Amino acid sequence: MSRIGKKPVPVPENVKVLLADRTITIEGPLGKLQWEYRPEVVVQYDAAARQIQVRRAVETRQAKAYHGLTRALIRNMVIGVTQGYEKRLEIVGVGYLAAVQGNVLQLRVGYANELQVPIPAGLKVTCPDQQHISIKGIDKQLVGEFAAEVRAKRKPEPYKGKGIRYEGEQVRRKEGKAVVK
Q1: Which residues of the chain have pLDDT under 50?
Q2: Which structural domain, as residue segments, surrounds residue 25?
Q3: Statement to judge: residues 78 and 96 lie in one domain
Q4: pLDDT of residue 1
């Protein structure tokens, strides 16, 4: 049995859970998330104990894989509607900067033209200063995916370390060709 899958997901007092034919809807103070889970698992909500229980409908290899995954995704939804998720990016490089204008993230990261990245609905993107980007939202997958998309526009390079990186990320540096034994 899945160690993660058999743990119940605790539901805080200010969160509403609604189950309707393989669709779970979780509504909290920050917003509302909805997800349709696989038919290999069964999701039950105990309103008295305020917890969500996930179990397998069949004992197949695929059902075992979906068991822990479903529980983890439901837990991420509960955390998302109560606390939210945030990813921070930092831009390193002379003349590299970011700005938010309307619903578009503008990046100047060493290319001849300025990059325009549209911000998806459901995310709040801010630039506290020109070298930092903060991405907030209730959907963990959407926050992480957008942060990875922005980082991919100019990954940190190994020689000078210039580029867009996650805050606190260690970039492995290489010595240049000028360094001789």
Answers
A1: none
A2: 9-82
A3: no
A4: 54
The per-residue pLDDT for 6 is 86
The pair of structure tokens assigned to 60 is 């197949």
Model pLDDT, residue 9? 93
How many beta carbons lie within 10 A of that of residue 81, not counting itself? 22
Left (φ > 0), alpha (ψ -120 to 50) or beta: where does 166 sit?
Answer: beta
User: Residue 28: helix, strand or coil by DSSP?
Assistant: coil
Taking only the tens place, the pLDDT of each residue in 4-56 is 888 999 999 999 999 998 999 999 999 999 999 999 999 999 999 999 999 99
Q: Long-range contacts: 139-148, Cβ < 8 Å, 24+?
A: 139/33, 139/80, 139/85, 140/76, 140/79, 140/80, 140/85, 141/76, 143/85, 143/86, 143/87, 144/85, 144/87, 146/87, 146/119, 146/120, 147/87, 147/89
Strand partners for 32: 27
Q: Same structural domain for residues 18 and 59?
A: yes
Q: Which of 57, 82, 107 is the last residue of a domain?
A: 82
Rounded CA-CA distance 162/117 in Å is 19
